[in-house]
Design a protein that fits this description.
alpha/beta, Dihydrodipicolinate Reductase, domain 2, 2 domains, six-stranded parallel sheet, six-stranded mixed sheet
């Protein structure tokens, strides 16, 4: 590709931001000048890119007219503060925080609904969904034509990296304390995380649902273009550094042909189907990979219209950073 682009990454020192920069290099994205930005606390750090250590600068002082594309890999408050400035400067925006309204910045997973980019106007704003919604959309999209899906039930076992670098450090510290028979003092989490499962990720609302669970439902409906799809989600915190895992049950209106389901999954982009009798794991398979692994594909014990799946995916790489870069690859074809 002859044309190259000036790009900014906001949140460049976070787990997702660093991985995003790494994937830009791995996929030989046509970057002319790369600007790495973060908060004042992180400014001055460096991130490697194409054999050099790139200095991270403070986002508050950045002139967005210098770039054509901005990745927002920080929190919602940062996106809400700086995305209007980027758009006003004519930049395309890809946001990973979920902060932008759906009518202005549609949620997009290239394997599921990449076609929506065709109707967008410049300067483009896109949202890359939560890692959980991305992984689920990649797997459910190829099944839409086969099944009349009436309900989706999901239990998402999330890696601590879904809550950032501090959560990763906390799990490591707790694990070391317990293995060395030292008293455990929870800090980031409100109780023991190491060698444990926590029944919720975030604070529940009055109905008992967390913000992440509601976001997953909203985003999955949008990406699949099924606004009335019944979706039940429980997010639990697992003592795993990287890699989310999901048990998924789909209720279909008619009996399920497993051979057709397996064939569709096997042919789907972004999916790695594991042969019957085996199953994938986050640590052994998904971490560091660019696909969502699927195993244990089976109908219900006594319901031939029920489909059960096991999924696992690298939440930071596949679920977040790679999806954002794939969106940028689609953008530069027609919209930049």
């Amino acid at each position: 590709m002859s044309q190259s682009f000036d790009i900014a990454v906001i949140g460049a020192t976070g787990t997702v931001g660093e991985t995003l920069v790494q994937i830009l290099e791995e996929r030989d994205f046509p970057v002319a000048n790369l600007h790495l930005l973060a908060s004042s606390e992180s400014a001055g750090h460096s991130v490697p890119f194409r054999g050099k250590n790139m200095r991270v600068r403070e986002v508050d002082e950045f002139d967005f007219s210098k770039v054509q594309l901005v990745f927002f890999a920080a929190g919602p408050a940062v996106t809400l503060s700086f995305a209007p400035r980027a758009t006003a400067a004519g930049c395309a925006v890809i946001d990973l925080s979920g902060a932008l309204p759906a009518d202005r910045a549609p949620q997009v997973v290239p394997e599921a609904n990449g076609h929506v980019l065709a109707g967008l106007k410049k300067p483009v704003q896109l949202s890359s969904p939560s890692a959980s919604a991305t992984a689920l959309a990649v797997v459910l999209a190829p099944l839409r034509g086969l099944l009349e899906i009436q309900r989706v039930n999901v239990t998402a076992s999330l890696a601590v990296s879904s809550q950032g670098r501090e959560a990763v450090k906390e799990l490591a510290r707790q694990t070391a304390e317990l293995l060395n028979v030292r008293p455990l003092e929870p800090r980031f989490f409100d109780r023991q995380m190491a060698f444990n499962l926590l029944a919720q990720v975030g604070t529940p609302d009055a109905q008992g649902h967390t913000m992440l669970e509601k976001r997953l439902v909203r985003e999955l409906r949008e990406v699949l273009a099924e606004p009335l799809l019944k979706i039940s989600v429980t997010c639990i915190q697992a003592p795993v550094f990287f890699g989310d895992s999901f048990t998924v049950t789909l209720q279909s209106a008619t009996d399920i042909d497993l051979a057709k389901v397996n064939a569709a999954l096997d042919a789907a982009p972004g999916v790695e189907l594991v042969e019957a009798g085996d199953y994938p794991t986050a640590v052994g398979d998904a971490v560091g990979q660019d696909v969502v692994y699927v195993g244990r594909v089976r109908t219900g014990v006594d319901d031939p219209a029920e489909l059960n799946l096991w999924l696992t995916s690298d939440n930071v790489r596949k679920g977040a950073a790679l999806n954002a870069v794939q969106l940028a690859e689609l953008l530069i074809k027609d919209l930049l």
